[in-house]
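Cont'd.
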Amino acid sequence: MLDYKLLAALAAVVEQGGFERAAGVLGLSQSAISQRIKLLEARLGAPVLVRANPPQATAAGQRLLNHVQQVRLLERDLRHDLPQISSDAGRTRLRVALNADSLATWWAGAVAPWCERERVLLDQQLEDQDVGLRRMRSGEVAACLCAVEQPVAGARSLLLGEMHYLAVASPGFIRRHFPDGLSQADVRSVPAVVFGPDDQLQHRFVRQLGVDGEFEYHLCPSSEGFVRMLEAGIGWGMVPALQIGDALRAGRLQQLSPGWSQPVPLYWHYWRSGGQLLEGLTAELARRAPALLAPGVSH
Amino acid sequence: MLDYKLLAALAAVVEQGGFERAAGVLGLSQSAISQRIKLLEARLGAPVLVRANPPQATAAGQRLLNHVQQVRLLERDLRHDLPQISSDAGRTRLRVALNADSLATWWAGAVAPWCERERVLLDQQLEDQDVGLRRMRSGEVAACLCAVEQPVAGARSLLLGEMHYLAVASPGFIRRHFPDGLSQADVRSVPAVVFGPDDQLQHRFVRQLGVDGEFEYHLCPSSEGFVRMLEAGIGWGMVPALQIGDALRAGRLQQLSPGWSQPVPLYWHYWRSGGQLLEGLTAELARRAPALLAPGVSH
């Protein structure tokens, strides 16, 4: 069998974001961690880490991480059946990637009871809904929530529902920049707020107005910060209806195109060989999501 | 003088997170971008980019980026004095690093009027308050908000005030896990929620209780998601009092140690040679922060 001491060192470096923290978690010296990584690379004949800050797994390293996570999930099933095999009675860590807007709205309510019942600790990684599969493909996470249906090799996907995005801004911003309505205004020169480089929601909205090319925008990689920026009148942006019910009712935000919304489907991707734990979480999400999300249309 | 076409290509690759997007923004082909980077590296005799995904600046590349941003800010002052020098009448982009909890609470209200008045677009980068200076040192940002006072070389720092963090959880969670109060409970085995690997707030709270070593936690890198996780009863955690006034009043969250709070100072770091724009923003923050934050104690 493989030498799992070496693989555990690799996983700790990537998960903890550095050699020093990895050493702390594994109760080893930093030089012991470093030796294990070097030994792993010597056996493999290829580097497993890019020595950046934080260190990043190479393609070969990512394949190994993927394997480590699958083994961990299978070990959990084993401990359930043979509890005496391990003195480790602690909680299981599960890494999932999800979009910030889900984490800021419905996700916690859907998973909290399950985490408590199953004694699971979540390592939640933010990833834009259009690109969440990157981390799934690279083996960094065991499951992910994203807008893409097609699963990566070795995984399955399940449609949980849709989030509906509204184009909104503060009343003052709308008066200043769109006094005669949206169609009359030069949307290209009015600042928007965009979550990050992978967030295409605002771009799609602008294209739907028939405007080609670039527009001006602030970057704000925080769901709550995003709403704060819009309320403060710094720009317009696309926000899940779920997140701004109060702000709309109280008049802190108004829709730019009343009655219009952009649906974004949310697919749950999970490893086929993830064991009972992942299957249990999948079943829990399938049961709870319909009460929290709009129904989705499978393509 | 330096060849700024090459430096602009480097800046675009790092800021846009890839060669393809950099090409789109500069209106060049991807191979033209790639050639410019190679030419820059040939002249420098050292690599400027680690070809990871996304590409990362090497130490030499970071020094160049730092220079590009300073030149951009100085150009803005020039355009103000000699508007005819450039047909580019657009807005200025300013990159700042700040902690997620500021972005989720008081920041937007403090900077929005200034951005509108000065025609500035913000590229906001999230960085934990204990490590925000990393991006300042690496030249990725022109200013940063963090808990550390000591400025990096070439920069100044200014104390804006303090955020006060409370240890909170849902009433149900407290009943289940701390039925006899905090001092009686085994804090090590009760799950916490931690923002990310650099977030030490929960660790400090646990140490103040006299507990040494590790404890169990979920990772949740989203300010709003963090509060949602606590409200859903998945763990306890440290949250700025600013952010949870409503949740405390409505009883969705309760303090673990009523009356206790942990102050975190917020220092504004900005380049000395950042020109009038950065000085204007600094003056605006100094004026507005006292109404939004608790007064800080300079050390």
